[in-house]
Amino acid sequence: MLIEKSSKWKEGFIERLEEREPWDNWTLYNMSYDVVKTNLITDFTGLQSPKYLPNLTPLRHQLEVAETVIERMNGKAILADEVGLGKTIEAGLILKEYLIRGLVKKALILAPASLINQWIDELNHKFYIPAIPYKKNYNLDNYSVVVMSMDTAKKSPHKEVIYAQDYDMIIIDEAHKLKNHKTKNYEFVQSLKKKFCLLLTATPIQNDVFELFYLISLLKPGHLGNYETFQSSFSANKLTWEHDDYLKELVNQVMVRNRRKDTGIEWTHRRVQTIPIQFTKEEKEVYDLIVGLKNVSSVFSSAFSMITLQKEMCSSKEATYLTLNKMRQQCVDPEEIDYVEGMIQKLMALEVNTKAEKAYELISKANDKVIIFTEYRASQAYLQWFLGSKGITSVLFNGKFKKSKRDWMKQLFKDQAQVLIATESGGEGINLQFCHHVINYDLPWNPMKLEQRIGRVHRLGQEHDVHIYNLAIEGTIEDHILDLLHAKIDVFEKAVGNLDDILSTFKESM
Amino acid sequence: MYPQQIHSYLHNFFDENNCHIVKNHDHYMTVQLTIEMDKKIMDRPYYWKYLENTNGVPNPAQLTFITDQNKLIENIKGEVVHFGSPRLNQLFRATKDLGAFVHMYEQVGNQIQTKTILTPWLGVNYKVSYYSDQTKEMLYSLGINLITGHLVDGFQERVRTFDLDPEMSEDAFGLTFIIKPLRALERLDLAIEKIINEDDHTWAEEAKIRWQKDREVLEHFYEGVEDKPECYDMEKRALDEQYESRINIEIINGGLFYLKTSIN
Asked: CA nearest A25 in B: which residue?
């Protein structure tokens, strides 16, 4: 076995013996011995880090995660706690532990640009880990812990600079962005040396189990077998699940996931309601015309754009118009153009938006702060105008805002406005525990997006029950989305555990 | 370390380094640094360089440390120092630097007729660390009698109870060592290695088993792949580094001790 020794002390000793340097002070000599004795890590197992962090009181489940990852998973794991349970704290504890134990000297943290400052802040202030945000001209040799965005990291020349460093630990936040193995992100992370590695995501599966396969193969290639063996275990239909227990067992060897209800903390309840809405006759007519479009022109033959249009129609005429108008410009046949223009007229003549009316009704009834999530910028603008006309103040929010603007909007919402209207991309990285009503004005295809949305509000620090309203228009594509959401939640539950009530048991109540 | 322990630690540290303690309350203190201490812990080499080049009047910093924030009711501005804070870690390192080598004599009372004979010893404190993907550390304090070559364990704990001083008492007589200190150091180094060799190293074997297991998983992933990609070698290297077991021996401090009390 390799034994490392330094001759530094011996050299200093010789200098004293030859009287070239003075001897040291006896009290300091004893103090030095005592310090080493106090800080001695006497066991291979157990966490040292908490005693170094008097200003942080980690929750029990966070300590357990740190211990499990270090002792059972040997420092390579997916941290998949539900949103709001403190994955950053868990990652911080683990990193701190390895730093104290001298096993990690250099660490790299990859996070979405919007979360970099939060990481820097938490690591420095909660964990006393001197992390710095990466800047272009920095020489990475000089910094032991660096936080940077995945978008920067994967590009040249940064990519090469990172590869040249010898990182002992890699932490990747919002790791579900690595689910697609054909992306640059994936390729970049695959080529990184991962001695100790943490992947943080509340949503390790968004659509199918292959995402989990690719995520785990990044962390520990071969753990779920290679692609062929894995695929053969899971038949063509990605939504069914064979070898249930076996796979679960394998997944649990590399992934920890706490659910709210396992944490032993008194969580407030989620009250989820799916609110069925009926279109007015006029709205229904336009919707049906949109469904019929595919028979009118080849411009409308793509399933994708047809689905988009139908979803938009379920949201607002403003959103629909933008897409429809763009497609009309592609039509050449005068007859087709006439048809579409007639339809646009009918669309623009609509006076009532039933869904918006319903949202207004819910806001009035709540008589409290409300967050509305929509998928479309046009609907977002419309809703602000519509609510404004009813005397309800609102602020807009989206994830592309800079941090300063996001903080400002959050403050405005807290102090002045009743409603915050956010688009999907506004979901990550803000905490709004002072609000306890969420309206999902549009439903996303992906249940984890719903979870991310709700997680903005239903997280540690929330003191009230949280009300969630999922709006869905009957007899439209939104029925189908609801079905699919249920099916996907099923896949996820089988692999990693129950989701809180993202969707209420809609079907039973129907 | 509790706030009180940290407080007395800081107090001792600065006091021993001749820094004047301007104010000393039970949960905070103000310290006037000496020039040497400022250079050591304030991390401002340019200031000192500038001052020396311009023959300016040195103005070493005065610092206030808050050792127990919870008890603080006074309106005091200062640095909060707690176990794990960067400042305390820095002072720990400074302590290690400033207390690495000693040369001590045990004091003797007034003897009327004969001088008391002091026997020379070399004492060394070793920290031994075992590393794989986990860590464990041990502290050994060994001493060797420089006349007889007799070796003892637990030297530090014994010797610190004695009345020691850097100056030899007038009534004492220090024997000249027979075993040269550097030769003795080699013997202690060998003794440490012997202790390590005889220790239980299941930890290393277990790390090897974990390594093999992960290695098999990796091989399985690339089974049947003719031209293995670069990331295969990288993963392999990462596993080697993750689980490789190694041992580090570090000398914390040590020194020459002239003792009248015999140690077995």
From this structure: B99
Lowest mean pLDDT among A205-209, A262-266, A328-332, A416-420: A262-266
Above 90 in pLDDT, residue B3?
A: no
Last residue of a domain, one of B98, B125, B145: B98
A5 touches chain B (CB under 8 A): yes
Same domain for B130 and B209, yes or no, is yes
- Indicate the average pLDDT of chain B: 91
Q: Max CA-CA distance within chain B?
A: 89
Co-location of B54 and B143 in the same domain: no
Contact A10 B182 (CB under 8 A): yes
Model pLDDT, residue A495: 60
- Let me know: does A199 contact A223? Beta carbons within 8 Å: no
Question: To the nearest whole number, what is the mean pLDDT of chain A?
Answer: 86
Assess whether B17 and B106 both reside in one domain: no
State whether A222 and B250 contact (CB < 8 Å): no
Residues of chain B found within 8 Å of residue A103, distances taken between Cβ atoms? 131, 133-135
**A419: enclosing H helix or E strand:** strand A419-423
Q: What is the average pLDDT across A394-417?
A: 84
Confidence of residue A510 (pLDDT cuts 50, 70, 90): very low
Give me the domains of chain A, ranges plus CATH numbers.
56-262 (3.40.50.10810), 270-276+354-509 (3.40.50.300), 281-349 (no CATH)
